Amino acid sequence: MWNAMLIAFAQHSQTEKVFDLFKQMEGLGIKPNFITFLCVLYACSHTGLVEKGQHYFELMKEYGIEPGDQHYASLVDLFGRAVKLQEALSIIREMPIRPTESVWKAFLTGCRLHGNTELADYAADRIFELGPELRFACVII
To answer: Which one of 42, 87, 94, 126 counts the least CB within 10 Å of its CB?
Structure first.
């Protein structure tokens, strides 16, 4: 129920309500999970709140939740939307797990949004390395 409310607020750009609800969860002793943090990162990404997004990404670790590829993709998306493409690339390069298609696509989308063809080519090459069947997805993006 909590995650459903979080994503509903996030999808309607009611970011402050997302943060308030997260605080309520903490106050009630309800431990956030993998999905909870995806919802909060989504809210930060779609409203350009880079510092808040970083805060919640780090907070995951305090709750003993190891960030997965979806969390990294959300973080890369956050930086990409904020025109911080070099920082997004640094996140990808420093990930403790191998970047997945979703991570590279988030980066590629940021490159496309801001017209950075050089980094877009780099991202597309990384996607192609993951598998030839993914080439069509890059063409669509």
So the answer is: 94
